[in-house]
Amino acid sequence: MTSSAPRETDRLPPPRAALGQQTWREIAYLLTSWPLDVAVLWYVAVWLFAGVLLSLTLIGLPVLAAGLAGLRAIGRWERERARALLRLDIDEPSPLHRSRRQRGFFPWMWSTLKDPVGWRTALLFVVRLPWALFAFVVVFVSLFVLWPLLPWLARWMSSVDRALVRVLLSPSDELERRIAELESGRLTVTDTASADLRRIERDLHDGAQARLVALAMELGLAKEKLTEDPETAARMVEEAHGEVKLALQELRDLARGIHPAVLTDRGLGPALSAVASRSTVPVRVTDDLGERPAPAIEGIAYFTASELLQNVSKHSAARQATVDIWRADNRLMLQVTDDGRGGADPAAGSGLAGLAERLAAVDGLLAVHSPTGGPTTITAELPWRERTGTREGSRP
After folding, report:
1. What CA dihedral angle connects 190, 192, 197 and 200, to 10 degrees?
2. Looking at the 3D structure of the chain, how many domains does it have?
3. What is the pTM assigned to this prediction?
């Protein structure tokens, strides 16, 4: 009588069933790493030899820079390979940053030579070569001899590759993030300063300068008529006197836009009260600062509040607004609130995005809460930096 009990061979899956898709991907990675490492090592050897040999000439540094640029590309391809075969979640490093005034071959060469990403990529393939050879041999032999152990061997050996790739090809998170932020902040500050200089130049050319030129011509005509027609000359001098007053007022307004004297002499609270007094919307200013921050931070806070109050006057249809400034630990806090129609959105090109970029350039931030129908509350946060001294003629 034939037994109906299942045989042992029926209950155990064949050896190939233990090799899932991820195991085959790991095996593919281990088998291809050694040939790839050999090829890249030849690239590194030729590159370094050529770069060092040619360093006695003018083309040595460009060769080194071009080789590093190629290694950065190889590293990007290796991260893609690790993501596809090892399922390794790894971020791309920050791109090379150069200011807009540094475009060109030599700035590119210098930035590339200082780039740690290319150098770490070269180090990965040099360090990994002996291990890649060992893993290649073990996996290749296991495919024909140690088949039942292959899944565990592949998982263990690929974990070493994961660690190497993660250490040498991952971005150095905090450092590279800060470098990228500082470079971006420097670009923002540079662009803002350039825009301010162009604005000042335009205001001088179209305003006070044009008025002073007209004034000089008017006085010249009055001088010619002084003996022939004294009454007309007197009238022209009187008109010129009015033009002088207007020119002086324009120069005062321009100087206030650069750095108001009240901010230097009395501080942020009185300066914001002066801005509030010129607003078309009634503004209440509350100053809870017991001391003054560094002049640079004070100036940024002043111009931030000024621009926010201009937005309130132009766009909010508010009946009243408030400005509050205070210190919270090592941060200077500035909050502008209005009872207008709301709907302020930094992404809508309202100028708030530019403010946020300028604040971010000094480790600050801008938070906007403006539901449709209002009210709108915009909070600016700046790092508190101690005031190391006061300018001559100013009060602390």
Report:
1. -170
2. 3
3. 0.44
